[in-house]
Amino acid sequence: YKEAVKMFEAVVENDRSNYKACFYLAECLFEGKGVIKDFKRAFDLYFIAAQNKDIEAAYKLGLCYLDGLGTRQDYTQAVAWFTEAAKYSHTMSQYYLGLAYMEGKGITKDIPRAIQWLVHAAKEGVVDAQKNAAICLEMLKHYKEAATLFLAAAQNGDAYSMERIADYYAKGEHVNKCDELANKFYEEAANQNNYIAQNKLAY
């Protein structure tokens, strides 16, 4: 990576309008690949790339604002950049945008809109999106759809979702009652130290 960093540094020094070089150098600085981590420089370079419609750079700017890396923490700016990337079907931007609407961070809380963005990411296999979309669907009493997403997240290894889908199977609500599947998912959740599942198995 050191040679790549030198090359990108030379290109950026001569031509800061080369936004692809700016992006790749930012990635090295952000990840500490071939160079010491420098979030401030990475942020500045991501900004140049994002202004040139680089979708991955827009996503990375969102992360920088979300976590206060290389810049002040600013949830509103994070949402703005995640929105920009999400419009172009950037999966993780869709996830973080959905989370923002779910939690009301940087934007007004809006559960239906949270579901819209989380489901996009869920369909691409983002496990936390599957889980959080299911939680939001439960808030709106869309239990059948919630069960489908809890099952997907459970099958992808999420302990919370294992415990929740086990409840659905145990009660036979919105899915066919199945004690065998309920116990299977309770046990799998318990093995991941989910204390609610552990307590349910104890009784």
Task: Give the secondary structure arrangement, pairings included.
Layout: H1 2-14, H2 19-31, H3 39-51, H4 55-67, H5 75-86, H6 91-103, H7 111-123, H8 127-139, H9 143-155, H10 159-171, H11 179-191, H12 195-202
Mean pLDDT: 95
* Separate helix tally: 12
**Approximate strand percentage:** under 5%
Number of strands: 0
The biggest sheet amounts to:
none
- Secondary structure: helix percent: over 70%
Summarize the structure.
This protein has 203 residues and is mainly α. The chain has helices at 2-14, 19-31, 39-51, 55-67, 75-86, 91-103, 111-123, 127-139, 143-155, 159-171, 179-191, 195-202.
Overall description:
The structure is a single chain. The protein is 74% helix and 0% strand. The chain is mostly helical and 203 residues long.
Index terms:
203 residues; mainly alpha
